[in-house]
UniProtKB/TrEMBL annotation, chain A:
The keyword Chaperone does not apply. Pfam families: dCache_1. The keyword Transmembrane applies. It is a multi-pass membrane protein. This is PDC sensor domain-containing protein. Residues 116-218 form the Cache domain. Keywords: Cell membrane, Membrane, Transmembrane, Transmembrane helix. It is found in: Cell membrane.
From TrEMBL, chain B:
It comes from the Bacteria. CDD domains: WHTH_GntR (cd07377). It holds the Pfam family FCD. This is FadR family transcriptional regulator. Residues 23-93 form the HTH gntR-type domain. Signal peptide: none annotated. The lineage of its organism: Bacteria, Bacillati, Actinomycetota, Actinomycetes, Mycobacteriales. Keywords: DNA-binding, Transcription, Transcription regulation. It comes from Rhodococcus pseudokoreensis. PROSITE patterns: HTH_GNTR (PS50949). Gene3D superfamilies: GntR ligand-binding domain-like (1.20.120.530), Winged helix-like DNA-binding domain superfamily/Winged helix DNA-binding domain (1.10.10.10). PANTHER family: GLUCONATE OPERON TRANSCRIPTIONAL REPRESSOR, TRANSCRIPTIONAL REGULATOR, GNTR FAMILY.
């Protein structure tokens, strides 16, 4: 092993870790705002004695588009994904909007394949970004993964649970964050690190790194991770310093 | 007519994203919708979106869309009901899909067929090798699920869908958008032909060879994974070319 300058490495880990936590917290703040808008809408409809229907959710558009505008290229799309059976008219439903990508204030509603007979049926109720917020009541981020039945992008999907004050689970507020956007946000901190450093998810898949051997999408073997991995606050991710072997 | 690169990877995106490039738009729309039906994105009896919506999603005029729907009606892939509750509906019976695939096969020269096969050889081999380097436990579990489904399905139509889905999921496990997009296009083009009854693909043997590929991916053995995928691709293309030659001799 070559001698590693511990204080420099520590500084790099701290700097990338803080930037990552900040980034993730900004994302979750947006999702909580979207979730709150749903709770408010839901409470109002119930107070009127109305069972919420899919068409009622259209009024969330202004909140969602507001968050899309505020986050810029960080968000490919965002919205709410409803608990199965929570709406009066549709068993599964999502109100999800995508930024047009050109910086114009035009947004597109995402239409997914919710036909159970289709080969590419988008059954979100067993997808990890939905089940963990539902079952463990935790904020979660899933990925990186190639979301080819959804938005056709290499993304991380962030999600927070939405619950009424009595604990009823309404669904999740979520956002798809392109891995390329995470990379460009964190690159300045990574560049300052003078030795190899990678940000990996809980399964050891690389999200961003500064070493050409360990690029986005590749795996860091658990042997290499053990001991050296530093957890990143507010995320299920960690930073792994790559010691060069002599 | 060569099939267009599908616009997106997403199930509906493959059908509904705007067509790019020039060329005959009607043919492109016909191919897009036939491909979606072949892959199982659009299923028997499913209603197509209203003409205005579908045309705008595809980025074509309603005139072009109507022309394409007329062609699809002639091919028996779509039927239209008038009046209340009317619209265009998918007709994806095995007979219709098979007779269309056979026609398609006869339109291709042996050279064109070989060339599609060459692309599949390259893409499926590379995707398998990268999947072996990059797959996680959850990817392997998803692939195993598709192998099991194939083993347990006697129905050829279901089997074919599980097969094309399997190939696409191997590409997804490679983490590469480009390879996946190409694999989706290749499956749209090839899978219905490969599963023609005349080619006589044996589902059990198919499931066995997929099983071996998943083992290689799980074992993180990229060389073996590539070799198995390439062999699989070559074997299928050879059967398809053999059928094409027999049809020519008749």
């Amino acid at each position: 092993m070559s001698p590693v300058d511990d204080s420099r490495l520590q500084a790099a880990v701290d700097s990338v870790g803080e930037a990552t936590t900040d980034l993730v917290e900004v994302i979750y703040t947006s999702l909580v705002a979207i979730g709150d808008a749903l709770i408010e809408l839901w409470t109002r409809l119930q107070a009127d004695g109305t069972s919420p229907r899919s068409s009622d959710l259209e009024s969330l558009k202004s909140t969602v588009v507001g968050e899309l505008d505020a986050r810029g290229p960080l968000f490919n799309g965002a919205g709410v994904v409803m608990a199965v059976g929570s709406l009066a008219d549709r068993r599964r439903y999502l109100e999800w909007w995508r930024a047009d990508g050109g910086g114009r204030p035009v947004s597109q509603r995402l239409v997914l394949d919710l036909n159970p007979r289709s080969e590419y049926y988008y059954d979100y109720s067993d997808m990890e970004w939905f089940t963990i917020p539902r079952d463990r009541n935790e904020k979660w981020v899933y990925g990186p993964y190639l979301d080819y039945t959804g938005v056709d992008l290499y993304v991380c999907t962030f999600a927070v649970p939405i619950r009424l004050s009595d604990g009823t689970f309404l669904g999740v507020a979520g956002a798809d964050v392109p891995v390329a956007s995470i990379e460009s946000r964190l690159w300045p901190q990574f560049r300052r690190a003078e030795s190899g450093l990678v940000l990996v998810n809980a399964d050891g898949r690389v999200i961003v790194g500064n070493d050409p051997e360990y690029i986005t999408g590749s795996k860091v073997a658990s042997v290499a991770r053990s001991g050296a991995a530093v957890p990143v606050r507010a995320t299920p991710w960690s930073l792994v310093p790559l010691h060069s072997a002599d | 007519m060569p099939i267009d690169q599908l616009g997106g990877l997403t199930a509906l995106g493959a059908v509904l994203s705007p067509l790019d490039g020039g060329g005959p738009r009607t043919d492109a729309v016909v191919q897009r919708i036939s491909a979606a039906i072949g892959l199982g994105v659009m299923v028997d009896g499913e209603q197509l979106p209203p003409e205005l919506d579908l045309a705008s999603q595809l980025g074509v005029s309603t005139v072009t869309l109507r022309e394409a729907l007329a062609v699809l009606r002639n091919e028996g892939l779509v039927y239209t009901k008038r009046g209340r509750g009317g619209g265009s509906f998918v007709k994806a019976s095995a007979d219709v899909v098979q007779s269309n695939s056979l026609t398609r096969l006869q339109q291709l020269s042996v050279e064109e067929l070989r060339d599609i096969g060459d692309e599949h050889f390259a893409v499926s081999g590379a995707a398998a090798a990268l999947a072996a380097r990059r797959s996680l436990t959850t990817d392997v579990a998803r692939l195993r699920g598709l192998v099991t489904r194939m083993r347990e399905t006697a129905e050829p139509f279901q089997c074919r869908r599980a097969d094309s889905r399997f190939h696409i999921e191997v590409a997804v496990s490679s983490q590469s958008s480009r390879l996946t997009r190409t694999e989706v296009s290749l499956q749209a083009e090839l899978s219905a032909m490969i599963w023609l009854p005349q080619v006589a693909v044996d589902p059990a043997a198919e499931a066995d060879s997929h099983h071996a590929l998943v083992d290689a991916i799980e074992a993180e053995n990229p060389d073996l994974a590539r070799e198995l995928a390439e062999f699989h691709s070559t074997t299928h293309l050879r059967s398809l070319i053999k059928l094409r030659m027999e049809l020519r001799n008749e």
